[in-house]
Every structure is written in structure tokens, then in C-alpha cells.
Amino acid sequence: MVAVINTGRSVRSILQYNENKVSLGIAQCIGEGNYPIDVDLMTVDFKLKLLLKQLELNQNVTRNSVHISLNFDPVETFLSKEKLMEIASVYMTKIGFGLQPYLVYQHHDAGHPHIHIVSIKVQADGKRIDMQNIGRNESETARKEIEKAFGLVQADGRNKTQKTELKAVNTSKVQYGRAETKKAITGILNAVVPAYKFTTIGELNAILNLYNVSAERGKEDSKMFLNRGLVYRIIDKDKKPIGLPIKASSFYSKPTLQNLEKKFAVNKTARALDLKRIRNEINLAFLNSKRTSFSQLETILQKKGITMVCRKNEQGLLFGITYVDHLTKCACNGSVLGKEYAAKAIQERCEKPHSNKKESIIKPDLFKSKEEILQNKANDDTNDKLLNNLSSDNGLKELIESILKYEYIGNYMPGQLKGKRKKRKRKAQSDNQ
Fold first, then answer.
1. Could you tell me how many helices (H) and strands (E) the chain has, helices first?
2. What element of type H or E holds 70?
3. 377-382 contacts: CB < 8 A, separation 24 or more?
């Protein structure tokens, strides 16, 4: 089980969010805590007024509302409403909200069972509940105890290296109703937006398109584009839209353009090391084969967890590539990696055979024939002429000559092979002087 705690300034908006889900048929208010009547007998207005009445006891608390979600493993679909209410009651008691009024909503718009709890921080005596480090302390302790008591899948015991495979949206099931469309898109957004590192809407779409979802801003002269709006919609395999578009602001995670742009700046720094892995895998794909076709490159990278998302025009000509690394959760355009990784350069590298020839080693004249020596001399004369044309600066010419010229001394002998020289006595001198 995973618990997520959020606080807010308006309990009205939090309650309205959950009630909207109920009206769309993708959520249900399954219970309450510390309300005077059963939830089935309450109107939305009554639910809200009771919470607002208690908040009036302490108007100094600005962030007075609490929104908690308890998320369960996808295999735990067996949890009944009664069991979920029992878990919610135990959890609220253990984190210090057992006497607070609260409402419990079961949502059906994600790929895993989960419930939302709406409550307030002001107690019946007007005192504020201190929530400092509640997630790290009380909530974590409660989570572990509840997992053991109810036999739930333990969040700490799960294999962290295990990868959740995202499945593409089944387009045949989403074109008939808005609720099904939103549920399908929500599942993809919840898995992609927080986890992957992207810096543009185009890079985000490179990931979303793999699962039949697209983010759209509209045409540049449209009202939506000018007002910095964003919608999400289902697309088919040919990237044609299916069903109705849904505003980004209507999703609970709020994947709006304004919030995404905040992630762009963070992701640009966070993915710096991940770009090196993509470059290395592309270079290795070309290095390990004399000739690598475009389709072979796609296959090789796919085995390494990297998907090449190609962009083509109406004539079918390739004009862009985005690389999506599912291992490091990184997406980037080819031009970000460098010119040699962009679409045009990759096509050229695939069309040309890779040269693996070793450079020839220069042999000293001692081991060359007379014809080779004469030929080298002619080449040297040509090089001299080129040097003269390259620069009129004699100092630069001499420097280049000293670098390119090699020396060969025929009578050279290493010092270790030389014998010791005998000291010679000076003439007209004797040992007795």
C-alpha cells in the first residue's frame, strides 16, 4: 500500500473534485467517519457544510483541508467496500485523524485499486492538528502495520528493479464514451509524466504516442494555443484522433502546460547523464558491424531498451528522430545528442559502410627500397609547397615542419650498449707531482 497526503486551502474544491468523479460514474462515495448520518442519506451540500462549520472554529489555519489517497497493488482487486472502509478507519486513527469528520471515495479511473479520503485539520475544540513530517513518521508506521494486519502487498518488499509494463490504450474501447476515454488517458499520464524526463511537448508526445495518447496545443492561431491551453486525446496507430479531447486541467494530476514547463527545466538538468548512455548505444551499434541498416539500428537499440520514434512528412520522408530510453526514463530529440545523431546524419551513417581499416605504420628509410625513398622525397617536396601556401608566417611553417618531420640517425646507439671511456693522462705530468 502507498499513501499520499496533500493539504490545501479549499476543502470545497477537494470535495467537488471527488463528487465530479461520482457524477461521471468513475467513483463512488463508499463511507464516512464521524458524520451524524449515513453517507447514503447525505447530500453534497450537507457533506460540505459540516466540514466548513468545523473550520470556522479556527480561521487562522490557512491550509485547512486534507486530501489523502491510499493506493493498493493491482493484484488486490479483491478488496471489498467494507474492507476498504475498515482500512481507511484504521489509517485515519493511526495518523491522528480518528476523531475528525472525513469522507471516503473509491475511484475506478486508474490501473490499480485506490481510495481518496477528504478531511480537515481543525479539531472539534478549534485546535489545529500538527502535520509536520506526518508522511515520514505516522503515515509510514500506519502503512506498515496495515499491510501486515490486512495481508496486503508490502511496498517495501517489492522488487525495485521490477519494471511496470505500460500497455497501449485499447482504442476500440474508448471511442464510445468520455468516461472510458479519461480513465484510459489517466492511467498513461500517471505512469509517464512523473517518471520520464522530457523537456518539450514533442518529447512528451514521443512517449505518449507509444501508448496511443497525444498532447495537443492546437494551431498557433487558435484560441487554445494563445491562451496556453493543453488537451489530451486518444489516437489510433496512424496517429488520427479518436473520441473527444479532454482538458489537462480536468485531470487530478494537473498535467497542464504551466506545470509541464516547470518539469522541463528540472528534467533538462536531471537527464544529462542519461544522454551519454543513448549516444554510447548508438555508437556501439555502428561500431560492431561493417554495415548497419536503419531497421537493424532500430532493432539493436530496442534490445537495449531504447525506442526510436521517427517523424515523417506526408511523402514518407524522415525529418526527425526522438530517442526514448525506457531504462533511464529519458526522452530526447536526436539534435540534442549532437548533429551526428539527428535524422539526416543517422540515415547517412546507415547508408555508408563503416571503415575498420587500421592506419599504416610509417617505416624508416632503412627498411625501404630505393623506389620508396625517392617517392617519399617527392611527397616531402609536395608537402613543402603546401606548407608555403598554408601560411606566410615562417615561424608557423617551422613549427609544422618540426611536428611532421621524423629523424633517422644511422649511427645511433643506446647509452646502455656503450662501453665506459678510459681516462687519459695529461702529457708532461707524472704521478709524483
1. 14, 11
2. strand 65-71
3. none
H helices within 153-312, ranges in order?
A: 178-192, 201-208, 223-226, 257-270, 272-287, 294-303
Residues 209 and 168: their CA atoms lie apart, in Å, by: 9
> What are the backbone dihedrals phi and psi of residue 149, each rounded to the nearest 5 degrees, phi first?
-65, -35
> What 8-state DSSP symbol labels residue 176?
S
Query: Which helix (H) or strand (E) covers residue 30, if one does?
Result: strand 27-33
Dist. CA 244–CA 261, nearest whole Å: 24
- Report the C-alpha gap between 192 and 175 in whole angstroms: 22
Distances (CA, A) of 166 to 73, 97, 149, 305: 15, 36, 31, 14
Backbone angles phi, psi at 388, to 5 degrees: -65, -35
What predicted TM-score, i.e. pTM, was given to this entire model? 0.48
Q: Which three cell numbers stand for residue 115?
A: 481510495
Residue 246's closest CA among 144, 177, 293, 304? 177
Which residues are CB-neighbours of 74 under 8 A, at least 6 positions away? 111, 112, 113
Using one digit for the tens of pLDDT, what is the confidence trace for 110-127?
Answer: 667 899 999 999 999 999
pLDDT at 381: 56
Say which amino acid occupies 178.
R
Grid cell locating 227:
491562451
Cell of 279: 549516444
